[in-house]
Amino acid sequence: MTSFTLVLLPIDGEVLDAGAGRVVAAAQAFGQPVHALVQGPAAVAAQAARLQGVARVLHAETAPPNAETLARRIAALAERYDTVVAAHGMLARAALPRVAALTGRAYLSDVTAIPSRRSVVRPIYAGSAMATVQVEGALCLTVRASAFEPLADRAAPVDIEALAPVEPDGRSRLLGRETAGQDRPDLTRARVVVAGGRGVGAAEHMRLVEALADRLGGAVGASRAAVDAGFAPNSVQVGQTGKVVAPELYIAAGISGAIQHVAGIKDAKVIVAINKDPDAPIFAHADIGLVGDLFEVLPALAQALPAR
Ligand code: FAD
Q1: Atom 27 of ligand 1 has which residue's CA nearest to it?
Q2: Which residue's alpha carbon is nearest to atom 17 within ligand 1?
Q3: Whole-angstrom distance, CA of residue 21 vs CA of residue 27
């Protein structure tokens, strides 16, 4: 009997998320046909049907409103799939453990490599070590999309199967969604991230971090200490319990470099650290280290760059 992999494709409004091809690449590593679950406008399903590596698209017009209902949707399909893959985003992180519980399968999170059909690699101890995990039987996993090479589109689309609406889970209700209105790029997809830590000293000083981010067309991030101190909103926390970022350039200002913070920036291509303490652990992870006062360095850098 052929086994199949189901991949839950990430959607960004009216289009497929830029990371969708990466998640399919991860799903393909299991060496079995990949079916893609798309919940959203028909145009997104049509886009998914042209993704390299997708053998069939399962399309539902309406996205389940919460993780509980999404888990029901996937669990109902799970009989056909021994492996369920999703990007390591907020919704999948809440839904896939539920699918695992509902269907009695294993769950593994934040997978960064899939060396064989029966083994996956994932970080442990806040990213200080990587564990290769042997897997037996059916599996649900979230993958770190940035760790996989994206697949290109192809010319001929595959079939799209329409799914019936799923019965909502009555135990929780979505009361509303609020989007933090901001003009800057999304933190997890930004090419440049400038982050401030406790060293920034006060909420109003975050404008130095913001000014440099704006000069570079980047997103603003923060350490947990900066978030806890009220310098920045929780939504921009980078690290083990915040967002995992993979920009081309990550600038850490006034951040010491605790392992829980570094866990969120490991995939950054170039890390620049600005810290007045030459012994700060962040310098061990930085490609470029600037020992200095961020109150001098940040404005000087922003000034040296052309206004956008
Ligand atoms: P500090 O460690 O206090 O460092 C401040 C730095 O600023 C110092 O190195 C100092 O030299 C420098 N500095 C001060 N003034 C200046 C100046 N004027 N110019 C230049 N440099 C200056 N942390 C995260 O960030 N993200 C997470 O997701 C996260 N998850 C966690 C999960 C768990 C379970 C636990 C236990 C902790 C977690 N933490 C996380 C917290 C983490 O351990 C650190 O406490 C936190 O990262 C420290 O933040 P910081 O570097 O901003 O502050």
Answers
A1: 239
A2: 293
A3: 10
Residue 180: the pLDDT is 66
pLDDT band for position 128 (50/70/90)? confident
CB within 8 Å of 29: residues ≥ 6 apart: 114, 117, 148
Measured from CB, residues less than 6 Å from any atom of ligand 1 are: 197-199, 223-226, 237-242, 254-256, 258, 260-261, 264, 274-277, 280, 293-295
Do 283 and 275 form a contact (C-beta atoms < 8 A)? yes
Residue 120 β-bridge partners? 133
Residue 169 phi, psi (nearest 5): -75, 125
Q: Hey, which of 224, 228, 251, 255 would you mutate to test ligand 1's pocket, going by the most ligand atoms within 8 Å of its Cβ? A: 224
User: CA 31 to CA 44: how far, in whole Å?
Assistant: 25
What strands, in cross-sheet order, belong to the sheet with 270-275? 219-222, 192-196, 249-253, 270-275, 288-291
Q: Whose CA is nearest to atom 45 of ligand 1?
A: 225
pLDDT tens-digit series, residues 161-192: 999 988 888 888 888 877 766 688 889 889 99
Locate all alpha helices (DSSP H) within 157-266, ordered by sequence.
Answer: 206-215, 224-228, 259-262
Shortest-distance Cα residue to atom 2 of ligand 1: 256
Centre of ligand 1 to C-alpha 227, Å, is: 10
Of 286, 233, 237, the closest CA to residue 257 belongs to 286
CA distance 5 to 35: 6
The reported pTM is 0.77
Expressed in angstroms and rounded, the spacing between residue 183 Cα and the centre of ligand 1 is: 26
